[in-house]
Structure formats: C-alpha cells, structure tokens
C-alpha cells in the first residue's frame, strides 16, 4: 500500500461524527447546513435528469455552465474569463485541487501551505511529490506576515496552496495580506492554487477579493470554486476551475484522467443557479450571518471566548480561559459528557502547533443551535 495514504489516521471528522452518533449529541462538527438548499436549483437538477442528456457531457464541462461561470465571476469579482479556454468543470473542488497539484507539481518541488488547513491538502501535496513548507497562522486573527512568508518561500517554491476564506479559522484575508502574498508569488515565479470555495459565504458587508485579481497574478493563478458551498448543496460535488490557457491546458489533462466529467444534470442546475439575482446570494449570506451572530452571542453570554468569524460556516472558541490546553481531549469530553460535537483545530495543523482552539459549525437551524447552547451552559457553569 502507498504509505502516504496507508499511514493516515482516521479523520477527525469521522471520529467526531461517530462519537456524536454514539452519544446522540448535537453535531456541530462536520461542516454542512441543515437547510436542503434552494428548491429552484434542486428542481432544475431533477428536471434535467428526466428531460435532459444523461450520457457523457463534454470533458471540460457543459458550455452553458462554463459561460455561466465566466459571467458570474465577471459580475461578482470583476474577472474577465474566456469560457472556452479558461474555465473547466470538475467533480468537486477537492478533485480540482488534486488535479492542479498533479498537473503543476513535479517531485522535489516545494509547496507553500498555510496551517491550519483543510485536511486533504497535505496528503495530496505529498502524493504529487511536493515538499510541504508551512506558514503557521495563530489566533486570534490568523493573519499573514512578511517574516513567515520569507521563511517558507525559496528558489524551489513551485506552488502556493491558498484557502480564502480560510477553513477552519473563518478568516477573510485582507487586501494587504493578498498583496503581500502576490508579491512573493511573483518574486519566486510560483503558481497559486486558490481554494476559493467559501467566496460567497462572507459576512459584515464584505465581498471576496480573489488573489487572481492582484497585480501579477492573472497568469499564475488557478482559481477553484464550489457550487456545493455557493448553494449549500455540499453533496453535489461540482467544482469550477479558472486559469489562464497555458495552465488550463495541463489542468485539463489531469482532470481527463481523474474523473473525466461531472453529472450533466448537476451542471445544468448549477448553470441556472449562478445566474440567480443578487438577492439570492445576499440573502444567503445574511441568513448565515444571523446564525453566526445568534450562536456567537449565546456563547459569549455563557462566558466563552469567541474568535472572529468573517466567513465560512464556522465559529471558533479559545478554550484556554477555561483552563484547557488540549483541544482533542476537550472535544472528546464535550461530546461524551455534554452531548455537543465540535472539532479540535489542532487536527488542521501538520504538527498540532495550536491546541487551544475548538471549531463549531453554526450553519444549523435555530433549534439546533439553541439545544447546543443549553448543553454548553452546563459545561460553562462547571468550568
């Protein structure tokens, strides 16, 4: 067996979800909403199954979805994309990330990773033959620094894998952060693979600023988006990849030999959804922000130290004021003794550099969040 995968432990998500089932806990660990997603988009997918084409669609994606992708990101982010040469559809963002790493990274190339990070990144980088170089981000703001980037970048840097907004920290990187990172990419002739899946789930009146739009980045960025996150349909696994033609030609070859294509009915529905009026996207953000504020307020009222959440489905709590320094043990006790499942953020670090932060998913119905707060109140009183 390949040691990169055979040596991997059971993921923290599987572990905590199993514990949540065993203890009949409120599961605020895994990141998916209670809501089934927009009905009109789901109906488009159902209609396309019955009335549409169900054989292989084009490898690069349905033309209507590639055009809808280019139009959508011109409107929302000011990007000018050629749907024929610069847009590709994949079976989810994780496939797109894996394909991009396989296409761009050669054995021995260095890949800059920002930890805490989505758990798929590190094994995929290693499987592509890349050598990880970590930029360790720390609470409460998890921002970038020139000193940390200077330590991670070198003449061997080939790729930067950048998630913005960042899961699990719910950080929305500033324009200054983006300009700083772009300057390092240009200076070291590195390609940025941008995991932008949370780009529409941003709060407090902000709009996502893609790294692709920064000076010098248009020709050296692979931008990856997710219909699952945009429409709260996490099981659909429809990714949109955007890159300059020179990059896209090789990205397409990797995609061809991974999944080749993506269900055509889902592509048709996503094409429809991307054309929805601004009110849908603004309303979606407002709904998630309201849930964030409700849960954050409840936690604060109980005396918990709540960290900023500028995007994603997640809210983080600093458990150090509770006298806790082991987030894994804390989460295990939380689910077993208090019936609430959360995720220890140390699981997102390569070496567990931060062990005092716990992540909750607030993308749930009010009743679910209130039930969790009731149970957490008992923990807080005892603490």
From TrEMBL:
GO MF annotation terms: kynurenine-oxoglutarate transaminase activity; pyridoxal phosphate binding
Residue ranges of domain Aminotransferase class I/classII large in the record: 26-376
Keywords: Aminotransferase, Pyridoxal phosphate, Transferase
Coiled coil regions in record: none
Pfam families, per the entry: Aminotran_1_2
The organism's place on the tree of life at top rank: Bacteria
Keyword Transferase set for record: yes
Cofactor(s) listed: pyridoxal 5'-phosphate
This protein's record includes keyword Transferase: yes
GO cellular component, one term: cytoplasm
SUPFAM superfamilies attached to this UniProt entry: PLP-dependent transferases
Annotated InterPro entries: Aminotransferase_I/II_large, Kynurenine-oxoglutarate_AT, PyrdxlP-dep_Trfase, PyrdxlP-dep_Trfase_major, PyrdxlP-dep_Trfase_small
NCBIfam families the UniProt entry points to: PRK08912.1 (NF006488)
Name by which UniProt lists this protein: Aspartate/methionine/tyrosine aminotransferase
């Amino acid at each position: 067996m390949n040691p990169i995968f055979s040596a991997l432990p059971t993921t923290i998500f599987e572990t905590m979800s199993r514990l949540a089932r065993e203890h009949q806990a409120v599961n605020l660990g895994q990141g998916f909403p209670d809501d089934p997603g927009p009905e009109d988009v789901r109906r488009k997918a159902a209609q396309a199954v019955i009335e549409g084409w169900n054989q292989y669609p084009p490898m690069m994606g349905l033309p209507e979805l590639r055009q809808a992708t280019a139009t959508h990101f011109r409107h929302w982010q000011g990007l000018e994309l050629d749907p024929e040469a610069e847009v590709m559809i994949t079976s989810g963002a994780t496939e797109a990330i894996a394909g991009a790493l396989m296409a761009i990274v050669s054995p021995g190339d260095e890949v800059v990773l920002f930890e805490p990070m989505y758990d798929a990144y590190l094994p995929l980088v290693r499987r592509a033959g890349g050598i990880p170089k970590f930029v360790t981000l720390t609470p409460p703001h998890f921002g970038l620094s020139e000193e940390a980037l200077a330590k991670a970048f070198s003449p061997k840097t080939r790729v930067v894998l950048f998630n913005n907004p960042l899961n699990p920290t719910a950080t929305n990187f500033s324009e200054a952060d983006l300009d700083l990172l772009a300057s390092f990419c240009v200076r070291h002739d590195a390609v940025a693979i941008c995991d932008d899946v949370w780009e529409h789930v941003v709060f407090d009146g902000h709009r996502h600023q893609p790294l692709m739009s920064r000076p010098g980045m248009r020709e050296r960025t692979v931008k990856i988006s997710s219909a699952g996150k945009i429409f709260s349909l996490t099981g659909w696994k429809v990714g949109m990849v955007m890159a300059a033609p020179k990059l896209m030609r090789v990205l397409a070859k990797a995609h061809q030999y991974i999944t080749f294509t993506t269900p055509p009915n889902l592509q048709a529905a996503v094409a429809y959804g991307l054309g929805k009026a601004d009110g849908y996207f603004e309303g979606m953000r407002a709904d998630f922000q309201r849930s964030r504020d409700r849960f954050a307020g409840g936690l604060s009222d109980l005396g918990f130290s709540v960290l900023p959440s500028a995007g994603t489905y997640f809210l983080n709590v600093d458990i150090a004021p509770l006298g806790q320094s082991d987030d894994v043990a804390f989460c295990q006790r939380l689910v077993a003794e208090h019936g609430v499942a959360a995720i220890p953020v140390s699981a997102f670090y390569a070496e567990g550099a931060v062990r005092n932060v716990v992540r909750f998913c607030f993308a749930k119905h009010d009743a679910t969040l209130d039930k969790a707060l009731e149970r957490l109140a008992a923990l807080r009183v005892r603490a």
